[in-house]
UniProtKB/TrEMBL annotation:
Top EC class, one word: hydrolase
Protein name: cellulase
GO MF annotations in UniProt: cellulase activity
GO terms for biological process, alphabetical: cellulose catabolic process
Keyword Hydrolase in annotation: yes
InterPro entries: 6-hairpin_glycosidase_sf (IPR008928), 6hp_glycosidase-like_sf (IPR012341), Glyco_hydro_9 (IPR001701)
Family: Belongs to the glycosyl hydrolase 9 (cellulase E) family.
Pfam families reported for this sequence: Glyco_hydro_9
Signal sequence, renumbered to the chain: none
Organism placement in taxonomy: Eukaryota, Viridiplantae, Streptophyta, Embryophyta, Tracheophyta
Membrane-spanning ranges: none
Amino acid sequence: MQSAKKTVTCGNEVVDPARLINLAKSQVDYILGKNPLGMSYMVGYRAKYPEKIHHQ
């Protein structure tokens, strides 16, 4: 998308590739521990992660 210089329209807002990449990176960072709890949501990743997993 970035090399093709394309954008995405979401409602009335135009989103460029750089913004989408930054959003994706921030979401991954959150899942891997850059969040208020400082906890990784990926089991076994980093020192602090969920130990009692409950699947439904």
